[in-house]
């Protein structure tokens, strides 16, 4: 399975605050393809730039994501995100811009989104979502 890691999951890995997230990540390293969208990397590095020790934060991101494949955003991802945005707008249920782009990319490519923010992603028809903040199976 290909798993697209949301920003909140990666932050939990960097901070090492949630043992279930760490266990799920370790398990997935051996059985799944782990993806980090450039959209998520943007969010992480923006946060690092705002940190009192940005160089340390950038290094923590690099170390944590050493086994995660970075994927860029392409035209099909954008078109899928636009369709999702339109559908959610018609239903009066929009989600945040970065989550929308991440969902569009995951849906276009058949990936599963790994997030602690299941409420927003659950609004998207056909998108597979996993919450790693609970114990692994």
Describe this structure as you would to a colleague.
This protein is α/β, with parallel strands linked by helices and 137 residues long. The protein has a single domain, classed as 5'-nuclease (Rossmann fold), CATH 3.40.50.1010. It has 7 helices and 5 strands. It has a 5-stranded parallel sheet, sandwiched between helices. Helix 3 runs antiparallel to helix 4 and helix 5 crosses helix 6. The longest helix has 16 residues. The radius of gyration is 15 Å and the shape is globular.
Summarize the structure.
The protein has helices spanning 7-15, 19-31, 38-50, 54-64, 75-90, 97-109, 118-121, and strands at residues 2-5, 33-37, 69-71, 112-114, 128-130.
CATH topology-level fold name: Rossmann fold
| Radius of gyration from CA coordinates | 15 Å
User: What would you call the shape?
Assistant: globular
SS elements, strand count: 5
Strand-and-helix sequence, N→C? EHHEHHEHHEHE
Strand order, main sheet: write it out. 3-2-1-4-5
Continuous helix count: 7
Low-confidence stretches: none
Largest sheet: 5 strands, parallel
Topology:
Elements lengths: L1 E4 L1 H9 L3 H13 L1 E5 H13 L3 H11 L4 E3 L3 H16 L6 H13 L2 E3 L3 H4 L6 E3 L7
Question: What key phrases describe this protein's structure?
Answer:
137 residues; alpha/beta; Rossmann fold; five-stranded parallel beta sheet; 5 strands
